[in-house]
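Retro notes, item 3 of 5
We never archived the inputs for the uridine-5'-diphosphate complex last cycle. Fixing that now. Sequence and ligand:
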Amino acid sequence: MLPKNRGKVALVSVHGDPAIDIGKEEAGGQNVYVREVGEALARQGWQVDMFTRRSDESQAEIVDHSPNCRTIRLTAGPQEFVPRQKIFDYLPEFVTAFFDFQHQHQTIYPLIHTNYWLSAWVGMEIKKLQTVRHLHTYHSLGAVKYRSIKTIPLIAKTRLRVEKQCLETADTIIATSPQEQKHMQTLVSQQGNITVIPCGTNIDCFGSIDCDNGRAKLGINPDDKVVMYAGRFDQRKGIETLVRAVAKDEVKRHKNLKLMIVGGFTPGESDGLEKERIANIVHELDIEDITTFVGRVQHEDLAAYYAAADICVVPSHYEPFGLVAIEAMASRTPVVASKVGGLKFSVADEVTGLLVPPQDEAAFAQAIDSILANPQWHKQLGTNARERVEAKFSWDGVANQLDQQYLSELNKLYEELGLFNPAV
Ligand code: UDP
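Structure as it came back at the time:
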């Protein structure tokens, strides 16, 4: 039996609010990760508070998700959406608000698990003033990301400095794949205490509905061949590669072909502009009649979309982990993905889908065609995909590993302080 009270942990996710709707601008994998990890750890007996920045006046300051798991919104900077490149200046205010919160609630968090480089800075500042164990998950590494984009933002220098400092000073870094660990060691610093604990997915939700029922629910014809994308509209996601691949003859030749692009966007914002750019390419390629922009879908409702699709494509230029791949795999849908980052770890090439070079539309077309053309192989890939996710990527499995990590961090903290750890 698990102890009732493992202790307190603060998950810090300054720009990825775990309580908001997923799938629109800047809300994606990190929000899902923090929320799911938080809830799973609370089930293990941890008291989990997830700290984020309040980005709208109307937002509640505290949101209770489940017993022992809540989101706490601190005020740092304007109470409005601020793109992540512009949040750094408000971080000192965030740190002050965190200490104020501890003071007001007469509490101290002995474990701080930060997410993304902005929160890493917050964690390092807290550690300067309080005895704490600092764990960090990067979600994305500037050193890798900047190699795959054309325009480097002004904040890049600061980000690279913070990422290096965090790797060298945090008590534990959690890499979500061996590939991410290797990137840290080769591109950021050789110092650092890194452990690999993957991201997970909700295997009860994804996989709960089969293809026929998914299609019936969404009004998709049983004879259609459905290729899908799910995620944010961001150039690094490579949606352009997918639409260009679908327009190639070897894919277009499949009867009743449909391309379903799922993900939210706001007109005029950067994701809205990317959506518009993609829509223009779809128009130029003359595949408007087979393409649907579905818009944002509630996270749980995505289960029907993945199940209804024949193939889920993850064409990212760079992907630290890529939750969409394992969500599709949990839904028994083969994945065609770029051979980059965490996708090389989650997608087993020729076993659960196919890995192809990023930005290579011809290779994507060939991969999509080969799976669509072979229904028996398609079915086998889907079965293998589900098995792989059950074995390696369930949230509860991931939370078990984090639970053990947190317990060992707490032990070290108590040891440092010469105290007995009541949680063990
Ligand atoms: N997502 C969603 N609704 C949408 C589009 C995406 O809930 O309309 C979710 C998707 O299920 C996944 C997350 O957004 O959990 C995207 O995570 P991923 O790691 O694939 O990409 P990131 O956004 O972190 O770059």
